[in-house]
Write a structure and sequence with these properties.
This protein is mostly helical and 154 residues long. The chain contains six helices and no strands. The longest helix has 32 residues.
Length: 154
């Protein structure tokens, strides 16, 4: 198979405008989420010099996701996924902005970080299942396998 045909096969899902928007938006969102996670870990350790508190804050941010993700899946199946994703992404952005504002203003403390981590865990409980179930809505059946391959390659 020649190179141009290979690239056409590999990029089939990108022929859908909705998939291109979804993929680009999720890439930007995941970059922001990763930056927030690294900044939060760095901030906790810098404020406390405690690996134990670093682990505790990380654990506290994951508990709401673990507990609420079944509810997030139910809601993703029954409500408008596009709207759920928009709300979840906006709330995640506001959570990151709150963390930034508190850090830059010098009013940040471990309690605020833990609370914001728990809030992010709650947001993730709705964002993750919705993101996973929204993908098939962005491409036709003929390109669904290719879209799943691109989503898992991030």
């Amino acid at each position: 198979m020649e190179a141009s045909k290979k690239s056409q096969v590999m990029l089939r899902a990108f022929s859908s405008r909705n998939f291109r928007l979804y993929y680009t938006g999720q890439a930007i969102s995941l970059i922001g989420t990763s930056m927030t996670q690294v900044a939060t870990s760095w901030l906790v350790y810098r404020l406390t010099d405690s690996a134990w508190l670093l682990g505790l804050v990380g654990f506290a941010s994951q508990i709401p996701t673990f507990v609420l993700i079944p509810l997030g899946g139910i809601i993703a199946d029954r409500w408008n996924r596009h709207q759920i994703l928009l709300v979840a992404q906006i709330l995640g952005m506001l959570q990151s902005l709150a963390l930034t504002w508190l850090a830059l203003s010098g009013t940040i403390n471990i309690e605020y970080i833990a609370i914001l981590g728990v809030l992010q865990g709650m947001i993730n409980a709705f964002d993750i299942p919705t993101r996973q179930t929204f993908l098939p809505e962005t491409v036709g059946k003929e390109n669904l396998g290719n879209a799943f391959a691109w989503r898992t390659s991030k």
